[in-house]
Amino acid sequence: MRNKQARAAWWEGLPEGIRNQIDGYVLQDSLMAAVRVVGDIGFIPDGIGVATATAIVSDRYAYYGDRIAREPHTPVDQESLLRLVGGVPGRVVAIEAVWDGDTVRDWFVRLLAITADPAEEHALALIHRAMAERHLGKEEEREGRHPAAVVAQRAGSELADRLSVPFHFASPDTPDDEAPRWQP
Fold first, then answer.
1. Do both 98 and 154 map to the same domain?
2. Strands of the 167-168 sheet, one edge to the other
3. Within a 10 A sphere around the Cβ of 151, how many other Cβ atoms?
4. Is the pTM of this model over 0.85?
5. DSSP H or E segment with residue 113
6. Three-state DSSP class for 95?
7. Residues of the domain holding 101
8. 118 preceded by cis ω (within 30°)?
9. pLDDT at 132
10. Which H or E run contains 5?
11. Does residue 124 have a pLDDT over 80?
12. Domain count across the chain
């Protein structure tokens, strides 16, 4: 049941109540809850494993598109980032941009404040493609780079300059969630 047509036929064969439950999770952007329901109802009778369950739920994400209630966009303006850093416990010793991603939302960049005393990382912004494209505008030159990387590079380096700390983005040109992390 790996092809899209077979997944669609399986979906249409579900009772309306189950479809509504799964779609409810999708519309709330609760990926894992939706995958769990598909797996729970499809594993024994239809042999649906995690990969196929994820593909079925991904089809539903594609169907609903922009109607999904995603997390609100986190701010990347300097005033907001400075305010967020002001609420971080500990001394900020670096600002770091780190790639992350998932099968539904593509690659995104987490902008972090790294602290000492206590040694921790604190999320400042989660920069997805759609948010970055809105922030940059359509005419902005990106030189072939992922828009989230462009926004993270600009916002993070400016914030680090304002705080007089290093900025680290190990892989600004290519998404890589295993790139080396900042080290003091």
1. yes
2. 120-128, 106-116, 91-102, 167-168
3. 26
4. no
5. strand 106-116
6. strand
7. 78-168
8. yes
9. 87
10. helix 4-12
11. yes
12. 2
